[in-house]
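Re: export button greyed out
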Amino acid sequence: EAGVTQSPTHLIKTRGQQATLRCSPISGHTSVYWYQQALGLGLQFLLWYDEGEERNRGNFPPRFSGRQFPNYSSELNVNALELEDSALYLCASSPVGGSYQETQYFGPGTRLLVL
Amino acid sequence: SQQGEEDPQALSIQEGENATMNCSYKTSINNLQWYRQNSGRGLVHLILIRSNEREKHSGRLRVTLDTSKKSSSLLITASRAADTASYFCATALDYKLSFGAGTTVTVRA
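Workaround output, generated via the alternate export path:
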């Protein structure tokens, strides 16, 4: 069974640009979660999508947004990039909507560098 | 803000020794989970312990949970070089998993 995949693995942008990160969940999983892990910090919850809807959002500004497609894959968009947005962005999936409390399966991450 | 806090922040042990790390949290939980992260890559789920459980084992891993003290511990027995990683505890709260800052474990050969 294929795991969670993310693309690209690395992304370099300059301040003010937009970044788009992609995630494909494990087949059969309907929930997708996004986390930001800045250097030396723990994971910060960004967004939770389930069945195409945004279910919960962390304490991040509106320039962090995303969507979930009918095939349950997801996209995270970060507009007006700032230097402090440089981080590892991790996507996770879980099999049943609302099972955020159960095991989440993580992808390898996208490392975003903002210059 | 972090719901869980791991202690210690870093741990260095000799291969074959046991490694113990602790996690404290602030509010009531449904379950507590431990994850491992190798070299800034994705997280791997290790074990989940529910609030009505006190101890759980999985291979060389032993997790305890004390809900009265709002704390959990992860014990790795007979450590190996491959156990070198960062370990995070996570609690479910407000429709999201909240992770601590992690304990970095280095196993020396």
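Chain A has a mean pLDDT of 92. The button fix ships in the next patch.
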